[in-house]
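Exam revision sheet. Question 4 asks you to relate a sequence to its structure. Input first:
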Amino acid sequence: MSGLRILLADDQTLVRAAFAMLVESAPDMAVVGQAGTGREAVRLARDERPDLIVMDVRMPDLDGIEATRLIAADDELTGVRVLVLTTYDTDENIVEALRAGASGFLVKDTRPAELLDAIRTVAAGEALLSPGPTSRLIARFLRSPAGPPPVGGPEGLSEREREVLALVARGLTNTEIAETLGLSPLTAKTHVSRIMGRLGARDRAQLVIVAYESGLVSPGRT
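Answer key, structure tokens:
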């Protein structure tokens, strides 16, 4: 099977069916499984090894956060990315999902084309979050962190790397970071990859958490 292999996890049958129809309509994607509970999502992840899981947060038996934590901790599932679903302002579990190992999140009422784009970008390890409200949402829930950052802090980074990390936390893509700092896209991408390596981060989601929890980026700062 060519293209991205997608696993859908949501306790609402109609929601799963709608997402499945949308994903299957894309020529570069295919649905390899559907789960109605978090525990079923973990089992199917191990059986199917998808490229990306679209994971609802609120599910019976095992919620999406715990399912994400189990998947992220499984060495055999390295490379499987999780894109969590949220109801946005009402769902305060989103940061816990990121801490658990999710690579990004999307809003349930996202437009179809935007959902497909989000799947592609997160599967590619590129843009995690959009600027503005998304960053403010994360900042709001990180004001009272539940524990230490999941990886190292930014103290050992160079000034340029700290600038890049701050822009990642604001939701900028590598191309936008390059434009902001007057770099080439390849140089920006290299900086992001090097920062991930130095901090021991598995993806951009953990970089966002480090930036906020270390105080490098604060709510309201531009």
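Marking note for examiners. The chain has a mean pLDDT of 84.
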